[in-house]
Write a structure and sequence with these properties.
Elements (H helix, E strand, L loop, with lengths): L16 E2 L5 E4 L2 E2 L6 H11 L5 E2 H8 L8 H18 L5 E4 L3 E5 L6 H17 L3 H12 L13 H27 L3 H14 L4 H13 L3 H19 L5 H12 L4 H4 L43 H12 L8 E6 L6 H16 L4 E5 L10 H11 L11 H12 L5 E7 L2 H4 L10 E6 L9 E5 L5 H12 L1 H6 L1 H10 L4 H13 L5 H8 L5 H4 L1 E2 L2 E2 H10 L3 H10 L7 E2 L2 H6 L7 H9 L4 E6 L2 E5 L2 H14 L2 H27 L17 H7 L3 H7 L1 H13 L3 H10 L1 H7 L2 H18 L2 H17 L3 H18 L2 H17 L3 H17 L3 H17 L3 H18 L2 H17 L3 H17 L3 H17 L3 H17 L3 H15 L1
Parallel strand pairs: 7-10, 7-11, 8-9, 9-10
Antiparallel strand pairs: 1-2, 2-3, 4-6, 5-6, 12-13, 14-16, 15-16
Helix pairs in contact: 1-3, 4-5, 5-6, 6-8, 7-8, 8-9, 8-10, 9-10, 12-13, 14-15, 17-19, 17-20, 19-21, 24-26, 24-27, 28-30, 28-31, 28-32, 31-32, 31-34, 32-34, 32-35, 34-35, 35-36, 35-37, 36-37, 37-38, 37-39, 38-39, 39-40, 39-41, 40-41, 41-42, 41-43, 42-43, 43-44, 44-45
């Protein structure tokens, strides 16, 4: 970095990123041109939060304070892209990295002048602590010399201006500390001119005026010192309606009497910019202005409050234990609507108020009683009046109110409770400037751009906690007598304290109601939100606050999300519902997550999954007709189902090496971004397993929505999972739903596909007689509509029925017909399966030559397409052939290889079969104990799969070996 740095007026090497003045950037190629406007704001925000994530939502707010365009996030992405190019072209040693919620400027800490400023102030503090005041002054002069004007001067952003104002305040604190040290070094005469300019620019800063009075007095200019005091008194009276503070009054008295008071010899100590006053500072001396008023604004604490004591202790520590740094302690409580953030904040505030904040407590509900957010100017006006400032003395502008507010709180210990904050811009002007006061904030959004905060996520109550809350409201006896109903109520409302309080209030008002009766009323989704209201308490009203805070597009998305059933929702689903081709579909869900209407439930492969609670789902479904038309809902459902179908089909292709053994339909597909598909399907069978609930819901949603084509396609594609992992009951459930859908729609092709798959299911269950009618009907339809793959599959399974009955000749003839049909269908995997089954027949006939030829060809096919399960089947048949030939050691080696393959692939069905084979091999080798171990493992697997006939066959072999 030094090659491009140079030096500024402070004598410190100039940093590549300079914000202590207008934004400037330089690199190895010289000055880097940053376009004014949006790019300037984005880079300024990133520099101020160097090496920390800046959320996209904050950048949008920083650029467009009000009414951002629909393309705001896209425009931010464009700005970041152009900034990356500019930094790269300019040779700046820094990168802008993308994160899930925003961006981070990655560079060494010394890459900004802010970092240099903080480092120099820290050096000054250390030197002063060691008594080296001259070195401390030199460091502070170098630090303040880094300023070229107001921080980020000219940047068109209210949000940035508020953050920059804090740095400007830090500069003034450093200047005041430097002046104090120079006065202690006896340099009063040389300071007079500088102090006169500082007082002229900052006439309301008591400390600067006190230092000027001291410098004048020590230089023998007593009259000018008193004139400076009288000028300040006039300004304070005209602008604030207040007299000067005690420090200035005591200093003026000392100057008049010619005393040697400490206030004259050395003005009251100003704390260095990096170290806030200790909690007790100013309690006994005259350095702290006397409070005009001691406000006590906290709302009433809740007596029957139920919460985990650990979070109470953590929040208490966050507001009372001083942190490193000079700013105030700020604790932020976050959570979904109705989770109890405000109640927890009030509870903690009451517990710490008297002991830690004797100068008062300020409170503001930032949401506003009318539902309109309270602006920071209005909140500051309330606070100033509560602190004793007369109404006519309250300034008009936001900046002047904030300055007065920070001045009044500078040496006091107050607790500020800001309830239900909407965003950072609402909170930033309400933060005190010093570290002696503390702030407790509650909000539904993330509020991550607030500097120096500790954040706490408030979680819903557990079932036990919910029961405890109900017991406190309606009495322990009623809850204990219906314990299960209490737990069910807690589950139904998601453990939300607000909902539970409403439930408790209704039960308390109606002692003749049972918990079970109210549970029954709440189970009706159509009236659930009506039931969750009592007096002024309402879940619907609570959710409406967050909902109304969304823009129109996000409200529409939330309502469409309610169409997707299931407890977890993948991040691509929002894009499918909107038909948005964005490569980063998760970004669409961020506003809903920020407002805590969606919960992040898991992270998988860099992508998150969301949960939509029952309460929010009911609310969204209630609003759905107002936000969307019937046609829009129908199209959204088609894309939702099409997304699941596209991914399930892709998983099948990855497992089988292509779209083999599938009857293809004409259902609409919606394809998520390819990068996301690859991440999802790293383990395709595992993905089918993990998404089992969502996939089943999609089959049923398709059927209810009249989407018969994708319904049967998705159901039959899921056989890939059902067959490998042993889910015959789900196989049957999905296919019965699909069969009804295709029959009602008169969809012949779909009927044949589902009937054929049900026939396969009966064979899987060991029910060949039941399979026959399904397969015969399906075969007739496939022949009529000219479907080659379905035709081949039916022939294959009809051959399996003949094989089961011992009719090997008929079976072999049908297998040969099936093989030819698979060739016509260009389905190599289907053909490989048939070859393996033909080998089973020839093996029993001791025709080892043909058996080996069939198996070698089947293995070659499966290896060429990467179908591991087919390879395992062919190798298992090879092991069985070796066992029939009495070559037990070779058979064992082959079957152990197969066991490893099915284990790695999670093929439980195959594992049960191979373990049985290994038991037979070890029985042939006279290894009774080893054979019994394999048999026992096989029985456990088959019983787990509910394969009772298979388990019985294994037990028969166990009995035989023990005779």
């Amino acid at each position: 970095m030094a090659a491009s740095a140079g030096y500024d007026d402070s004598g410190v090497a100039a940093a590549p990123f300079r914000v202590l003045g207008p934004l400037e950037v330089s690199g190895k190629q010289g000055v880097v041109n940053v376009a004014p406007g949006r790019q300037e704001v984005v880079l300024g925000a990133l520099v101020l939060q160097l090496n920390r994530v800046v959320e996209t939502a904050y950048l949008v707010d920083a650029i467009w304070a009000h009414d951002p365009p629909k393309t705001a996030r896209t425009q931010v992405q464009i700005c970041v892209s152009r900034l990356r190019r500019a930094l790269s072209d300019g040779g700046v040693d820094a990168t802008i990295e993308t994160r899930s919620h925003g961006y981070v400027l990655r560079a060494p800490e010394e890459a900004t002048d802010v970092g240099a400023f903080r480092r120099l102030v820290t050096q000054a503090q250390a030197a002063a602590g060691e008594g080296d005041k001259s070195s401390a002054v030199s460091a502070l002069r170098a630090a303040t010399g880094l300023w070229r004007g107001r921080c980020l001067a000219g940047a068109p952003s209210e949000a940035l201006a508020r953050t920059a104002a804090q740095l400007d305040e830090a500069r003034l604190e450093a200047v005041e500390t430097c002046v104090r040290l120079e006065l202690e070094l006896g340099r009063h005469e040389r300071l007079i001119g500088e102090l006169q300019q500082l007082v002229a620019h900052h006439p309301l800063r008591d400390r600067l005026r006190a230092y000027l009075m001291t410098a004048l007095y020590r230089s023998g200019r007593q009259a000018e010192a008193m004139d400076t005091y009288h000028q300040g008194r006039v300004i304070f009276n005209e602008e604030l309606g207040l007299d000067p503070g005690r420090e200035l009054r005591d200093l003026a008295q000392s100057i008049l009497t010619g005393g040697t008071d400490h206030a004259v010899d050395g003005p009251a100590e100003a704390y260095p910019a990096t170290a806030p006053p200790p909690p007790g500072a100013g309690q006994d001396g005259g350095a702290r202005p006397a409070p005009v008023a001691v406000p006590k604004q906290l709302p009433t604490d809740v007596g029957d409050f139920v919460v985990d004591s650990s979070i109470v202790a953590a929040v208490r520590d966050a507001v009372t234990v001083r942190q490193d740094g000079r700013g105030p302690n700020v604790a932020v409580l976050l959570g979904r609507p109705g989770v109890g953030k405000s109640t927890l904040a009030r509870h903690v505030a009451h517990r710490v108020a008297a002991e830690y904040f004797p100068d008062g407590q300020l409170y503001c509900d930032l949401r506003g009683l009318s539902g309109q957010p309270v602006g920071p100017a209005e909140a500051l006006g309330r606070f100033l009046r509560a602190l004793g400032v007369p109404g006519q003395a309250v300034p008009d502008s936001l900046d002047e109110r904030a300055e007065m507010y920070r001045s009044l709180l500078a040496d006091r210990r107050l607790l500020v409770l800001l309830d239900d904050a909407l965003n950072e811009s609402q909170v930033m002007p309400l933060l005190p400037g010093s570290g002696s006061s503390c702030v407790l904030v509650t909000g539904r959004g993330r509020l991550t751009a607030l500097p120096g905060t500790r954040r706490f996520d408030v979680e819903p109550l557990s079932e036990d906690g919910a029961a405890q809350l109900l017991a406190r409201i309606i009495g322990e006896y009623r809850v204990e007598s219906e314990r299960e109903a209490a737990r069910a109520l807690a589950r139904l409302v998601g453990g939300l304290p607000l909902a539970l309080r409403i439930v408790g209030a209704r039960l308390a008002a109606r002692p003749h109601w049972s918990l079970t009766s109210l549970l029954s009323r709440l189970e009706n989704e159509q009236s659930r939100l009506d039931e969750l209201a009592y007096g002024e308490l309402s879940i619907r009203a609570s959710l409406s606050v967050s909902y109304d805070g969304l823009n129109a597009a996000d409200r529409r998305l939330l309502c469409l999300m309610s169409l997707a059933e299931g407890t977890e929702i993948p991040s691509w689903l929002g894009a499918a519902l909107l038909d948005d081709p964005t490569p980063h579909p998760a970004d669409l869900l961020e506003p809903l997550i920020d407002m805590r209407l969606l919960d992040v439930t898991a992270m998988e492969g860099g992508e998150f999954r969301c949960g939509l609670s029952q309460i929010v789902r009911t609310f969204a479904q209630e609003r759905l007709p107002a936000e969307t038309t019937e046609e829009e809902r129908a199209v959204a459902v088609r894309r939702l189902v099409g997304g699941w179908l596209a991914l399930a089909e892709r998983a099948h292709k990855d497992i089988y090496g292509g779209a083999y053994t599938l009857v293809a339909g004409r259902g609409e597909r919606w394809h998520p971004p390819e990068d996301q598909v690859r991440r999802c399907l790293r383990d395709p069978l595992g993905w089918l397993e993990s998404e089992q609930t969502n996939l089943l819901n999609a089959v049923e949603l398709a059927a209810r929505s009249g989407l018969d084509e994708p319904c049967w396609e998705l159901a039959t594609t899921l056989v890939t999972l059902f067959e490998a992992r042993g889910y015959p009951e789900l196989w049957d459930r999905t296919h019965q739903v699909a069969l009804t859908a295709v029959q009602e729609a008169g969809n012949e092709r779909g009927q044949a596909a589902v009937l054929a798959s049900l026939g396969t299911l009966h064979l899987y269950r060991g029910e060949p007689e039941a399979a026959g009618p399904y397969l015969s009907t399906a075969l007739e339809i496939f022949e009529r509509v000219g479907e080659p793959t379905g035709h081949a599959l039916c022939l294959r399974d009809l051959a399996r029925i003949e094989q089961h009955h011992g009719e090997d000749d008929r079976a072999l003839a049908l297998y040969e017909s099936a093989e030819r049909a698979f060739v016509r269908a260009d389905d190599v995997v289907g053909r490989a399966y048939v070859l393996s089954e033909m080998a089973h027949i020839t093996m029993r006939r001791a025709d080892c030559t043909r058996t080996r030829a069939y198996l070698d060809e089947a293995l070659g096919i499966c290896r060429s397409v990467g179908f591991d399960r087919g390879q395992a089947l062919a190798l298992r048949r090879l092991g069985q052939m070796l066992m029939h030939q009495g070559r037990y050691e070779e058979a064992e080696r082959t079957l152990l290889e197969v066991l490893d393959m099915v284990g790695a692939g999670g093929d439980l069905v195959g594992e049960g079969y191979v373990l049985h084979d290994l038991g037979r091999v070890n029985s042939g080798l006279r290894r009774v104990e080893q054979a019994l171990r394999y048999y026992s493992r096989s029985v456990k697997v088959r019983e787990r799969l509910l394969d009772h006939s298979g388990a019985a066959a294994v037990r028969a072999d166990m009995v035989a070996i023990l005779r």
